[in-house]
Amino acid sequence: MQLPRMFILLSFARVLMGMTVPTRAADSFSFTTLDPHGATIASANGINDAGQVVGFFRRAGAKDHAFLRTATGTFTTFDDPDQGALRGSPLGINDAGQIVGVFMAGDREHGFVMTR
Predict the structure, then answer these.
(1) How far apart are CA 80 and CA 108, in angstroms?
(2) Beta carbons of 35 and 29 less than 8 angstroms apart
(3) Which of 30, 36, 99, 100 holds its CA 20 to 30 A away from the CA of 91?
(4) Segment among 1-5, 69-73, 84-88 with least mean pLDDT
(5) How many CA atoms lie less than 13 Å away from 46 in the CB half-sphere?
(6) Are 67 and 36 in contact (CB under 8 A)?
(7) pLDDT digits (tens, 9 = 90+) for 4-40
(8) 3-state secondary structure 30-87
(9) Dihedral, CA atoms, 88, 92, 97, 100, nearest 10 degrees?
(10) For 41-55, how does the pLDDT look when each residue is reduced to its tens digit (9 = 90+)?
């Protein structure tokens, strides 16, 4: 049985209308490298609506240090609350500026919330 030509055309049109052409992201983005001075490793882990970024960095042969970078580019470094900790990392920052993260002290990992 032969399908009516109109049915075939309508089906083809539906398929074409359902297909979307991938759109290219707007070219209005910016790319900023976040490398604290002397860092051999750096990681940005969270950002809030004010453009504040938190993360960690390591200098050669040293322990990890946390950082807060403001939208204007100012870096503030801070260490975990346990001075004996070897590794720590902020994981996020909310719009109130509260920072959450983890640090390793001894053989245990601890979470933290830091309010400025």
Answers:
(1) 14
(2) no
(3) 30
(4) 1-5
(5) 17
(6) yes
(7) 555 555 555 555 555 555 666 667 778 888 878 888 8
(8) CCCCCCCCCEEEEEEEEECCCCCEEEEEEECCCCEEEEEECCCCCEEEECCCCCCCCE
(9) -50
(10) 899 999 999 999 999
